[in-house]
Amino acid sequence: QKEVEQDPGPLSVPEGAIVSLNCTYSNSAFQYFMWYRQYSRKGPELLMYTYSSGNKEDGRFTAQVDKSSKYISLFIRDSQPSDSATYLCAMTPGTASKLTFGTGTRLQVTL
Amino acid sequence: KAGVTQTPRYLIKTRGQQVTLSCSPISGHRSVSWYQQTPGQGLQFLFEYFSETQRNKGNFPGRFSGRQFSNSRSEMNVSTLELGDSALYLCASSLANYYEQYFGPGTRLTVT
Predict the structure, then answer these.
(1) What pLDDT does B95 receive?
(2) B51 exposed, middle or buried (CB, 10 Å; 0-12, 13-18, 19+)?
(3) What is residue B59's DSSP assignment?
């Protein structure tokens, strides 16, 4: 079993929908949680990171961490076709420890 | 501020050959990490260099090696290439920590 599990999708939603992307993990030592967006043939782009449990909002994006359930989420409000990409979660125990990535969820936002 | 750059962007090599990939981090960033991305395994950590020292290493064979120069630029070398080494190799830089890494566009390596 992988340390970080992520549904590969694809997830198809209509423009304007609220999107929920999720990851579960098994290592209770993880403290920092990141979300990356990767367009086809590009490198991953850091969207946001959170420390420990709680919520963090940045524009249309909200990251949520529930350490008790070992479950993290990324919500995208008012989704746009330009949000169509693969979303990767990543996590690490500390500032000087390597990242462990989920395999990514492919999102398609249709007109 | 310029982003992370990687050269070359595409590479085709034959089994048994070796290859060197280059990464220039964002100005001021001292940490450079390397990752291998494949459809089956996703993003896997290779190693990280900070101030010219390898600070962390993933679970890859010794054929994969790297180094970092005093200007923080980094190179990754793969010797005795195998078909399974075909992948997108990504480099990411950060000031010092792992949770705020910025990725380059990657080098797509095809081994035939």
Answers:
(1) 87
(2) exposed
(3) S
Determine the residue type at A99: L
Average pLDDT over residues A19-39: 96
Confidence band of B100 (pLDDT split at 50, 70, 90): confident
* Cβ-based neighbour number of residue A81 at 10 Å: 10
Q: What is the DSSP letter of B98?
A: S
Residue B93 CA from chain centroid, whole number = 10
Rounded to 5 degrees, φ, ψ at B59 are -95, 65
- Please name the amino acid found at residue A103: T
Q: Tell me the count of A-B CB pairs closer than 8 A.
A: 62
CA-to-CA distance for A53 and A51, rounded, in angstroms? 7
* pLDDT bracket for residue A54 (50, 70, 90): confident
Residues within 8 A of B (CB atoms), A 49-78 only? 49, 51
Per-residue confidence band for A52, with pLDDT thresholds at 50, 70 and 90: confident
Radius of gyration from C-alpha coordinates of chain A: 13
Cα–Cα distance for residue pair A74/A77, rounded to 1 Å = 10
Instruction: Check if the beta carbon of residue B97 is closer than 8 Å to that of residue A95.
Output: yes
pLDDT over 90 (residue A98): no
How far is residue B18's CA from residue B63's CA, in Å, rounded to a whole number? 9
The answer to whether B111 touches B14, Cβ cutoff 8 Å, is: yes
Q: Which positions in chain B touch A97 (Cβ < 8 Å)?
A: 56, 98
Q: Nearest CA of chain B to the CA of A103: how many Å?
A: 5
* Interatomic CA distance for residues B16 and B23, integer angstroms: 23
